[in-house]
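Dear all,

This email documents one entry for the complex benchmark we are building for the journal club exercise. For each entry we list the sequence lines for every component of the assembly. Then comes the predicted three-dimensional structure of the complex as a token string, followed by one or two observations. Please use this as the template for your own entries, and keep the labels exactly as they appear.
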Amino acid sequence: MTAYDDFTAHIAKYHDLLCILNTLKWDMRTMMPAAGASSRGRQLASLTTLAKSIFVSDETARLLDAAENEVASADSDSYRARALRQTRDAYEIQKRIPAELVARMAALGAESEAVWAKARAENDFPRFKPYLKGMLALNIELAEAIGYDDHPFDALILQFEPGMTAARLHQIFAELKAGISPLLARIVAVDEPLAIDLWEAEYDLAAQKKLCRELTELIGFDYDRGRLDSAPHPFEISFTRDDVRITTRYDANYLPMSLFAALHEAGHGLYEQNIAPELTRTALTADFLGQYAVGGASFGAHEFSSRLWENQIGRSPAFWGRHFGRLRAAFPQQLAAADAELFYRAVNRVRPSLIRVEADEVTYNLHIMLRTEIEIALLEGAIAVDDLPEVWNAKMQEYLGLTPPDDRRGVLQDVHWSFGGFGSFPTYTIGNIMAAQVLAAAREQMPDLAAQLAAGDYQPLLTWLTENIYRHGRAYRADELLKRVSGESLNTAPLLAYLENKYIDLYALN
Amino acid sequence: MTAYDDFTAHIAKYHDLLCILNTLKWDMRTMMPAAGASSRGRQLASLTTLAKSIFVSDETARLLDAAENEVASADSDSYRARALRQTRDAYEIQKRIPAELVARMAALGAESEAVWAKARAENDFPRFKPYLKGMLALNIELAEAIGYDDHPFDALILQFEPGMTAARLHQIFAELKAGISPLLARIVAVDEPLAIDLWEAEYDLAAQKKLCRELTELIGFDYDRGRLDSAPHPFEISFTRDDVRITTRYDANYLPMSLFAALHEAGHGLYEQNIAPELTRTALTADFLGQYAVGGASFGAHEFSSRLWENQIGRSPAFWGRHFGRLRAAFPQQLAAADAELFYRAVNRVRPSLIRVEADEVTYNLHIMLRTEIEIALLEGAIAVDDLPEVWNAKMQEYLGLTPPDDRRGVLQDVHWSFGGFGSFPTYTIGNIMAAQVLAAAREQMPDLAAQLAAGDYQPLLTWLTENIYRHGRAYRADELLKRVSGESLNTAPLLAYLENKYIDLYALN
């Protein structure tokens, strides 16, 4: 055994624990009877603490030192060198975060999330306020513990999107706003309800489920190494590339709910299923800082894959041109008066709306900017938690021309702040930007891609994505991957071009 | 914090890991895609090793010593004193079992089980033979490590049924044989096929599933704290009393398969769901020797509950007198020509058969005796693995008057020996004996029980079982529980009386 082998064996066992934590979370969100929540909470806490004590330990330090000495001369671009660097980075940061801070965040976070759920249901922001203040204070403590050069937000986003900063987001958001706001105004000026409202019919849930399975299988999700279940908040999670679980949710009337959530989560799943097998149980298929077994380069990079398959592929005219027949065969009466064109329009209608998770492709990123700007201002102390409802509503008016009628549909709508997940919102927008950028690169490099997609042949694209992105797991940072694929780092132009092309055509704005 | 509190907190965290292992096993047997097996195996191995290192540790020894000193003066019958004694017992034995022996057993056991599965499918005993020899040798090593007074079998059964010995089983089996063999001969002499074969019809699986859920709910299984799923080999498993999972399997023709497996596993589940809440996450809801989160007093005591609900209740005339209408409502065509009486006879027909898991109540224990006697003789060296097929077939002829046409339906039928589970077979018969003994005591102490059961009211029996047995978890040994409930230790008379009464009546043998 070499020192690197010793290190790898130690990390593999730690990785197993992270996969087990994922299994517990999957079960909790899909299968567990309600009364099991309390003991499951204890089990998660015990294993999380144990896992952290195994990672932040003298043993890890010793094995890491020895392996680094051994690999020092090796190619710094190799998977080995990258696995060591990522482990070292996570180790040094984890060491700085006091265990008692983690414990306080977990304790207050659990209570805060429960209070948030009640406060949202009862439209009672004042009730949630003290908890949000507490979670904000703890996030500031966390940022100080992690350390940063410019802005506390940079320390927090490091947990989700290494390399991203508040300053760079400021620039990115300015570019997006400059492109999206005028486009949105032009769309809003001409938007009208479609001739037929397809979402008044009832769509049998078993038939929806069958379709979700078929469509996700068509784009390449491998059910020999995965499952599809239902969950109130759809998600994807994996316990190595050989066991990847996706979920969706069903609405008897609103058919797009299940179909696009399934495509979205299958997009996440395709990333995990196509990581190189030799990266299984290594640092390159886990986020050791967040103690989370996940194979993508970053949260944003993972979101790139889900958004690419859900939106760029799944909401394209080619996709429904090819598959609408399948849909109508499943729902002959409900879709009797529709055709591929109408269905395409129905699932791409753009309207400013109050709720992020229901937003269309054009307005979605505005919801993210609003949240991120508020987070940054809260961390700076530029705004106060007490003023949040007013700040939120003013920004909604500014970006979307709407004022929420209550906090339930305003500042209380998202769970993220309640458990302390400051810094994670921008990764959704980063995913959107990357998806457009990567697919633009694929189109350039794959002359037959448009024809393949029109023919419903997704294998060439999946192979290209695997070769260029998926297989590397977390070996490269999101920006490195983008440079390898497109020659550029994160760039908003392809997303703006994609949105303009698609919606100018769809709304006949020329 | 007292020393006992410190001990309890340590044990609670270890208990969480055992519950997590159960969750992983449940998922593996019900939900996991086939390709997940290999990584799941690694995850189970990592967590099992980690759990053992936490239990067999200086920390456990120190906390246990301190808590014992503190509790020494307390009532030796208290849950606290019992929790400490059980932990001490398991700790002292676990310490004696070398980790490398456990590792060798796990490694060879996994391989051996896979070879067994192939050997059974291909009726190829010679292929399995070297593995069985290996597992036998490892079990002898294990028995020597654990230690025993009289017989190596006593060390092995200690893992499943503390207090039981080969000598006592010898006596029990002699009594059972003396009662069962003549009864069986009388039945066989008169048994004839029923007027109608109910198992030629097809029974819709969704309707079967609904019935399984209804019947298990009727006897008291709490679905707010549990689930029912399907599994090729039905089982029950729990992750604390608040999350108890049962499974069954479905045969489109043979309706009793799903119904009785569901009642059987719900019987296990009722035990777990009705343990006193204060025993959650303590030594009194886990088998620390077997590293298994399970709440019953022993394997046999757990089997008492499943057999009681499956057989004593579920196969009784009162049960089908009450519920046949429900069955016929679900399957009006399939059961058009049947009535409660015919159904009762159909699910209680007695016939010597080759396969243990398909055996009726009368012949079942003969299958267990045969296996146990072979195990004991193997451990003594009185018979050799090479001679097993002949020994098996001779005993089948002696006990059941049948000779298996092949090893697949003979010595190769059960998985137990392949992974090394020597000593576990007798717990099935112990469960049968206990079930009869406990229900006889309940009938004596509950004058209205027969009327309640006839009326389909199972709550009074469940309350009585909870009060007398279930709530104590593992606080009492099986024999202690029996003495508290019936004034006697394990006694074959009630089982023999139950079988005679039931089948003399059913077959009109008088």
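Observations: Residues 1-96 of chain B form one domain. Chain B has two domains: 1-96, 166-506.
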